[in-house]
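Our platform keeps sequence and structure together, in a single record for each protein. This encoding replaces a full spatial description with a residue-level series of whole-number codes. We quote a single record here, exactly as it is kept in our systems:
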Amino acid sequence: MSNGPAGQAARSTTVRPHYETSGATRPAPLRTFLHTADGVRIDAVYEPGEVVYETSAPPFDHPAFVVAHGFTGDADKPHVRRIARVLARYGAVVTFSFRGHGASGGRSTVGDREVFDLAAAVAWAREQGHARVVTVGFSMGGSVVLRHAALNARQTDAVVSVSAPARWYYRGTAPMRRLHWLVTRPEGRLLGRYGLRTRIHHRGWNPVPLSPVEAVPRIAPTPLLVVHGDRDGYFPVDHPRMLAEAAGDHGELWLEPGMGHAEHAATDALLARIGDWAVGAAG
């Protein structure tokens, strides 16, 4: 599924990334509002990353990582900033706030129309000159990167889904029962708005979007990595196994011992492994 040693060797003869020294300068981050295909303003940040190249290498040859956060996250949350800092060692990073989150407009549809938000962020990464784009999603964002890749063929060069559900309407764990209360009840949505800075749409899905496990087979031949913790309190391990089985030979599963759920549980070491995988897979 990813490039073998021969492909990696060929890449290293032309592009030699290394970490920037503290005295080096690089372009400042860019922040803007993107406009989605359905008319929602999305707060987004582009950071050039810490990778620099020999002058003989073409500019922007390193990939751009587009990070899709989990439900109630946003581009300014500390756990999202940490993800961006680690991935910046491997390429540029685009972070953004899904609709209804942070400074973005609209209201959250909890993984449905959020594919438009991700599509806008991926297009913006391309506009910065990056030939390779990797989407990395966590929890709700993990389901969004799967559906986006299935519905938008060839817009991404590799996909990483962390702690994502395999199927909709799952209520098998206490955290997911609480989440369903938050989304479906007026008092829950009020708590989401004022307690969690997340504005949730009051209407249910109509029609029900393609489920993650249905989306996965449509991603091929784009490389796919599914990452999940064996102590995830939201989605037990049958979810990643279903996704991996649906992916077949074009997917890879990392079942992480002792890991919990999503961004908060993803260690810097795991994120570094994801960065290494992505650079090779998107080559």
Observations:
- The first strand starts at residue 18 and ends at 19.
- Residues 1-24, 53-59 have pLDDT under 50 and may be disordered.
- The two ends are 11 Å apart (CA to CA).
